[in-house]
Design brief:
The protein is mostly helical. It is about 45% helix and about 10% strand. The chain is globular, with a radius of gyration of 26 Å.
Length: about 210
């Protein structure tokens, strides 16, 4: 009789041991799991960190795409926002200010990392230049994601490739070409002239896969 009951007596003990092991593992990993749940994924944080440094509050429309409003006929050749909203894919462009005003020349924020000669010697110089740019929370980014810290090394490497960087360095001309190609691929309207946060994040993620 006793031997026939042995398997049933062992079950509670086995369950207790298994439960104890599960609780132990859960306690050990609870903080890490909770942290991952509360923080954004690295891709999201890196996208915000990059766009918040490279993005612009101004975008100059292509001259052949400038149209007047139906009510006044005023041409709006320059779009503006209160926070970074675009990464323009041009080195420099001028356009009429709102209401048919004077021409205004715009140099995108990302252009400043190249300096006067328009060339970056390599990835390390590129990383230093990105880290030195001031951060401003971009429009269109997911809420609650902090990007004030510089992007990770992995993200900078992906960004370097996105800009068209190589072992021989990177020029502004090559960067414009690479950015246009990526923008056309990741914008839903296939525009090659600018990134929004959504299309930039898609490009950054896509190139990391």
């Amino acid at each position: 009789m006793k031997s026939s009951l042995l398997p049933f007596m062992l079950v509670p003990a086995c369950l207790a041991n298994a439960n104890s092991a599960f609780v132990s593992r859960t306690n050990n990993s609870h903080g890490a799991c909770l942290g991952r749940a509360l923080l954004a994924t690295p891709d999201d944080r890196d996208a915000v960190a990059c766009f918040g440094r490279l993005g612009d509050k101004m975008y100059v429309i292509k001259k052949d795409e400038v149209t007047g409003t139906a009510a006044s006929g005023y041409e709006f050749g320059i779009l503006q926002a209160g926070r970074p909203k675009w990464i323009p894919c041009y080195e420099r462009r001028s356009g009429p200010t709102q209401g048919g005003g004077a021409e205004l020349e715009h140099e995108p924020n990302w252009r400043t990392i190249f300096g006067e000669d328009g060339v970056i010697g390599g990835r390390d110089a590129f990383a230093d230049a990105i880290a030195s740019l001031p951060f401003s929370a971009p429009l269109g980014a997911p809420t609650g994601i902090l990007g004030a810290e510089p992007p990770s090394e992995e993200a900078v490497s992906v960004l370097w490739n996105l800009f068209g960087g190589s072992d021989g360095g990177l020029s502004v001309v090559d960067a414009v070409t690479a950015l246009r190609a990526a923008a056309a691929t990741h914008n839903t309207d296939m525009s090659d002239d600018k990134f929004t946060y959504k299309s930039f994040a898609a490009a950054l993620t896509g190139m990391s896969e």
